[in-house]
Design brief:
111 residues; mainly alpha; 6 helices
Length: 111
């Protein structure tokens, strides 16, 4: 399954009336090149923080759609596996995500 296919399926799992759906769908359309990963990450983190502040749980479809987008942003292989292991396990690890994706380089989880 390609990155774009998995991102699109995560977005489509949300209700089209959802504000999150609209934001994520617009961001999906911008995905193309890996150099856009930093910008997509920054925008996605803002959405994630808003959802967590509103009390959405890790298991909610909205949070899972964001997790699926974040899961596909790092480079393939060990970097992606490290990113998922460190940050995408539960609500606590999601809250530890840095605002600036450049901070992920030192942890071996980014491009």
């Amino acid at each position: 399954m390609s990155v774009n296919t998995s991102i699109l399926s995560a977005i489509k799992s949300l209700s089209p009336a959802s504000v999150v759906f609209n934001l994520l769908y617009k961001m999906y359309k911008q995905v193309g090149a890996q150099e856009d990963a930093d910008e997509i990450y920054k925008n996605t983190i803002v959405i994630l923080e808003e959802l967590l502040q509103r009390g959405y749980r890790f298991e909610s479809p909205e949070i899972q759609a964001v997790v699926n987008i974040l899961r596909d942003l790092p480079a393939m292989g060990a970097k992606r596996a490290n990113f998922e292991r460190i940050y995408l396990q539960d609500e606590y690890t999601l809250r530890r995500l840095p605002h600036d994706p450049r901070k992920l380089h030192a942890q071996g989880c980014w491009h």
